[in-house]
Amino acid sequence: MLTSLPRRVAIGLAATAALAAAMPAQAQDWQPSRPVEMVIMAGQGGGADRLARLFQSIIQQEGLARLPFMPVNKGGGSGAEALRYLKDNEGNPHIIMATLNSYFTTPDQTDIGVDIEEFTPLARMAVDTFALWVNVDSGIETLEDYVEAVRAADGSWRMGGTGSGQEDSLVTALLEAEFDITHTYVPMGGGGDVATALVGGHIDATVNNPSEAMSFWQAGRVRPIALLTDERLESMPGVPTFIELGYDLEYYMQRSFVAPGGLSEAQQAYYVDLLERLSQSETWQSYAAEQALLTDFLSGDELQAYFVEQRELHRQILASLEDQS
């Protein structure tokens, strides 16, 4: 098992109302004085982008903030652009960033002078899941079919993914190590582009997050082969896990928010409170259930400890893959 899975927490609307009525005094000590930049360390159309824009709409519709939150994509260099932007804006309380697992891997793989422990942790909203997808026209219906097809392609099987050195390429490497197969990895700007390319037949497979491919599956254009989760998902009935098929493959994507370093306790508390109220909204809970996101809110020191733990875990995974290559 590659990472631990937080269990989904079901929270009712009554709790939302109670929390809103009892906002911490510290969170009321500071509020933004201008619109907040919601930086996304990925391109448009992917899971992180879709979530950030959903959060923007919930904040507006629920009246959670007086001033707007403005999504800004900075996905260059597998998120290096966004990470460096956060670093260069230390002390700026009008910027927050939606993270991916490249939050852990990119600083280690690039020379951008970023240490994630210097940033201000805000909240983990959920962990996202991964599935292996193919085009329905491929005729592939099982994992055995898939492995056979990739081996027959002799290195020319095209696996689409977001960037190089990011989560999709890591999952692809895990598949290659487990099944002794080889893909031609095709990096793209965002998860939306990857899913569309699979539908169009420009690539042969993806390991998209369900939210990025669910609509194409419902339209009968793509087929999920197996899930990288510890158990089946209610939103994807009938789709087996790699584990139940006999392969110890499990991987998740954290969906969190951080801010630049140097924020005051009151500034941090404002965002943590806002995101906690957002996490308990009916819109978010419904979306998460439909899109195979596993909600488990985490903030403060616990979140920073989680980040450090996950960074070390990814270092170990990358080192093990290098040893096998």
From TrEMBL:
Transmembrane segments: none
Signal peptide start and end residues: 1-27
Keyword terms, alphabetized: Signal
CDD domains: PBP2_Bug_TTT
Pfam families referenced in this protein's UniProt entry, alphabetically: TctC
InterPro entries in UniProt: BUG, Bug_dom1, TAT_signal
Family, per entry: Belongs to the UPF0065 (bug) family.
Name under which the protein is recorded: Tripartite tricarboxylate transporter substrate binding protein
